[in-house]
Amino acid sequence: MKLSHKNDTGKLPRTALLIVLAAEGEAPALPDGVALAPAALEDFRGEFRQVRLSDATAGAARRVLLVGLGKREDVDGERVRRAAAIAVKKAETVEAEDATFFVPEAVAAMAGGASAFGSALAEGAVMGAYRYDGGKSAPKPAKLKKVATLGKGAALKSGVEHGVVLGEANCFTRDLQNKAGNQMTPTQLAAEARGLAKRSTRITCKVLEEAGMKALGMGLLLGVSAGSEEPAKLIHLVYKPKGKSKGRIAFVGKGLTFDAGGISLKPSKGMEEMRYDMSGSAAVLGAFHALAGLDVPYEVHGVVPSSENLADGKATKPGDVHVSMKGLTVEVINTDAEGRLILADALHYVCAKVKPDTLIDLATLTGAVVMGLGHEVSGMFSTCDELRDRLSAAGRATGEKVWPLPLEPAFVENLKDSPADLRNICSPNMGGGSIAGAAFLSQFVDGPAWAHLDIAGSAWNQNARDYTGGKGGTGVGARLLVQYLESL
Ligand code: BES
Ligand code: MN
Ligand code: ZN
C-alpha cells in the first residue's frame, strides 16, 4: 500500500472509499457534495473504534466509512493511529482498491495539532496495512493499493510524510522479525543492513567478519557463535547529519537470529518463537530505515552483534571461560544467557571505538521481563535520569511504552562470585532475572549515558492494537528510537 498526501482544493477526487474520522458527539465532517443516507449518520455516535460503512448517495466517493475517535479531549496520537489502522483494515476487507482520508482542519486540530495528527494518521494507516507473507509460495496481493490523505496546510502534509517514514520503518522491522530463522541468519541480517546504506548517501555500513572479531578479541561473541555453522557478524551502521553534528548517539541491538539455548538447551515447546531473538537488532535497523527519510542533526551509530545460539560439538559448554574484548574473563554458567555475552562485546566495542555521548541498547534479553511487565511494556534500565525521562516520554508519544527497573549493585557483586572475573548469571536465590542481565551489561559500558531496554515481551505477541500486535513481531523500538532522537 502506498500512502500520499493531497492538497484539499475543495473538490473531492474520485475515490472508492472515503474515510471520515470523527470525535464523539460531533457531526462527521463530509466533503462538499458528498451525502449519506440519514440512517448512517443517526447510527454513528463517534465512540472510539466505532465504524459505520455506507454507500454515498451523492458525490465523488463510492462508499463512506465513518470511524469514531471518542471524546475530543481524549483523542491522542495512539487513538488516531488505531482509528487509521481500523479504517485501512476495513478498506481491505471490503476490497476497496483505493481510499481517501478526509482531514479538515477541525479534525486535524485534535491529538496535538495538524503535524502530530498527520503523523499519527499516516503511521496508523501504514502499520495497519502491514501483512507478513514471507513464508508463502504464492502470496495473495493486497486489494488496497493506494491511500491518500486529503487536507489543507503544510503542517498536515509534512506530518503525513513523517508518519509514512515511521510507519514504513515499523513494517520493515516487523519483516525482519517475522522471517524464519533460516531466512534471517546473521548473513541475511548483514545484507539487510547493507541495503539500508544504499537508501541514503548519509548512511554507511561496514560488517566485521569472524576474523575481524578474533583480531579485536571478541571472545564472548565468538564463544556464543562457536556452536553454529552460520558465521557471526558485527554490523556497524553510521548515519551522518547534513550539517554540523550536535552529538554522537549509538544504538546497539541484540541480533540473535535463533536462540536454541546452546548446550543449556531450551525446551522444544515454543522454541520456534526464538526467531524473535533478533528483535533488538531489527529495531536498530528499523531506526536507520527511518533515518534515511528524516533530517536528524546527530551522528547516529547502529551496532548489531549477530549470531545463532545452537548446540554442537564446538559449542561453548557450561563452565567454559571466555575472554571478552574488554579483557574481563567470563564464566558461562548457562549458555542460554547468551544475549548479554554478545552484547557485552558490542557495548565495549562501541564505548572503545565510537565513544558516543549516549548509548541505548535493545535486547530480547530475559524471560523474566515477560513475567514482570508482560507484552505491552519494555523494561528500561538507565544510568542517566534525563535519558530515562526522555525515553519514557518517547514511549508515551509512540505507544511503545517503557517502564523503569533498577540497576542494583548487589547483582554485580553476585556476578563476581566466580573463578573468572564475572559469571554470566547470578545465583538463583537472587531472583530478578532482568536486573541480573542488566547488571552484567553494565560492566561493559564505560563513558556514555546508557539505557538498556529489555524488549523480550514487547517485541512480539502483544495484545492486538489495530495497527500492530496479535501474532508476530510488533516492530517495537524503531519508532521509539526515532522519537527519542527527535525529542533532543
Ligand atoms: N532470548 C532469551 C530471552 C527470551 C525469553 C526472549 C522469552 C523472549 C521470550 C534469552 O537469551 C534467554 O534465554 N534468557 C534466559 C536467561 C537465563 C538462562 C538466565 C531466560 O530468561 O530464561
Ligand atoms: Mn537464551
Ligand atoms: Zn536469547
Task: Explain how this protein is built.
This protein has 488 residues and is an alpha/beta fold. The chain folds into two domains: 150 residues, Leucine Aminopeptidase, subunit E, domain 1; 316 residues, Aminopeptidase. 35% of the residues lie in helices and 22% in strands. The strands form three sheets. Strands 8, 9, 10, 11, 12, 15, 16, 17 and 19 form a nine-stranded mixed sheet that branches. The chain has a seven-stranded mixed sheet with strand order 1-7-6-2-5-4-3. Strands 13-14-18 form a three-stranded mixed sheet, covered by helices on one side. A hairpin with a 2-residue loop joins β4 and β5. α2 crosses α4, α4 packs parallel to α5 and α5 packs antiparallel against α9. It is elongated. The chain binds ligand BES, manganese (II) ion (MN) and zinc ion (ZN). The site of ligand BES has 16 residues, from α11.
How do you describe this structure in short?
The chain has 488 residues and is of the alpha/beta class.
Keywords:
alpha/beta; Leucine Aminopeptidase, subunit E, domain 1; Aminopeptidase; 2 domains; 19 strands; 22% strand; binds manganese (II) ion; binds zinc ion
